[in-house]
Structure formats: C-alpha cells, structure tokens
Write a structure and sequence with these properties.
By secondary structure, the chain is an alpha/beta fold. Helices cover about 50% and strands about 10% of the residues. It has 14 helices and five strands. A five-stranded parallel sheet has the order 2-1-3-4-5, with helices on both faces. Helix 7 links the parallel strand 3 and strand 4. Helix 13 packs across helix 14.
Amino acid sequence: MTATADPARLRAELETLTTEAFRPELAEIDRCSTLEIARTMNAEDATVPAAVAARLPQIAAAIDATAERMARGGRLVYAGAGTAGRLGVLDASECPPTFNTDPAEVLGLIAGGPSALVSAVEGAEDSRELAVADLTAIDLTPQDTVVGISASGRTPYAIGAVEHARRLGALTVGLSCNAGSALAAAAEHGIEVVVGPELLTGSTRLKAGTAQKLVLNMLSTITMIRLGKTYGNLMVDVRASNDKLRARSRRIVALATGASDEEIEAALAATDGEVKNAILTLLGKVDAPTAARLLETSHGHLRTALETAASS
C-alpha cells in the first residue's frame, strides 16, 4: 500500500513547481470578455512550440534509441496518470490504423486502468506499486521502451514505471514540464519541456498537455519513419479499415507511383490491399509474392526493397 502523503509537505512541494505557479496578472481573467480570454489563451498556447523546440536534441536521442529497440522486436509503452496517461493511451491507440502496427506493439498504460480514461480513479496516480503491477502484467522485457509521462514530473505512478523498467534493463524516457524533475532524473532520457505557469493555476491539461501531445506525436511518428513505416511523407503502412482509409490507400499508391486507377486497383487486389506491397509491384515491376519477399528481407523498408528490385 502507498502511504498517505503529508498535506503540508505536498502543498510545499507543489508550490515549487513551475506548472503550479499562480499568476497574479490573470487573477481577474473571469471579468474579461470571452474574446479577450480566448486571445489570452491563444497567446499562451503559441509559446508551447518554442518550449518543445528547446528540447529537440533530447527528443531526437530518445527517438533513435526507441527505434533501435523496436527494430529488434521491442515495444513502446507509455505510462502516466490523469491527462498525461490519457495522452499516452491516445497516441498508442492511433498507431495501428496509421502505421499498421500490432495493437501490442505500442501500448498506453494509465494509472487506474481503462476506467481512468473517463473518470478519476482515487489514489491511483500516487502508487509506484500499481505501475510495477501494470508493467508486470504486460511482461515487460529489456527490449522494450517505457515512456513515463507527468506534467509535474513528480507523479509516483510515472516515476515508479520508469524506475521498474530501468531495473529490468528496458530503455526509459521521462517526459515532464518542470525543470529538475524526479521523473527526468529517474529515466535514461529525460525530456523536460518547460512551458511555464498555466492560464488556470495548476490546470496542466492546458499548455503542459499540449506540449506532451506534441512530443508524443514526435516520438511515435518519427520512430515509425525510422522503422520504414513511411515512404517519403506517405503513410504506406496505413491499415484500410474503413471507406475513408480505403480511399486514402488508393490515393497514396497514386501519389507514390503515378499509376492509373486500373493499375492501382489491380495492384491492391494482388497484394490483399497492402499499400506498401502494391507500390513495390508497380514501381519495382515485380509480382506480389516477390514484393512480399523483398519487403520481408528489407525489414519493411520500401526504399531498400525498391533498390534491391532495381538491381536484380
């Protein structure tokens, strides 16, 4: 069981955090017009990309290390509580339709489990033990990457996840929005995107949440680019699970190859709708079985498969 925190100590700790700072100049924002509040909020949000830009070297290093692990069969696991946990689950859930990943390849863990996505689970974020249990349940291995997410950088669940993962030899990343955070210190790759105090004191679903979303977009998207899930800026591993995505699949093949509609339909039919394979049959002038073999040999990298096809 996790011991109950001393309220006075916790209050003093929160008062040291940039994300919890009170802004006297906004103390009467509720008296402003709606348009004035919207302008103020928009101006606050505009500062977030610069804060992310200041941490691009650390973000890139974490991505390269993550991609290296995933290329060897490792998984990407996000762990967080509240808004941070929800953002991790969101990013993980978007990888299968976007990059045709296995649902078990990119995972999002949130303190308190799935029910915490829509309602708060009392005390869940305060438990390091719960994080250990959640990682144990998915059989975490040294090949995996665990990204602890916490705006404050002090959330026990996120820190516990990173500490446990590091003890097991997994790659660890700590994403927070305060400098000198315990989460960044616990992780091999600490990423501290300092966005400053929020419009509403302590409401870290605002700028901090936006910053976390931007970084998670980079972590998953660029990792997938490194793994060969794209061809240029085309999502050639997209999973066509609905009418919109089926239409997008045909458009991607058209953009990549310049082929006619009839050629595209034939290529997709021959490759069971696999966009990457269809492009390879058209550009590499090979049949579907050869395309599948070349992509397997190139570990899914279309450019490499195309070079092999051209030289054979």
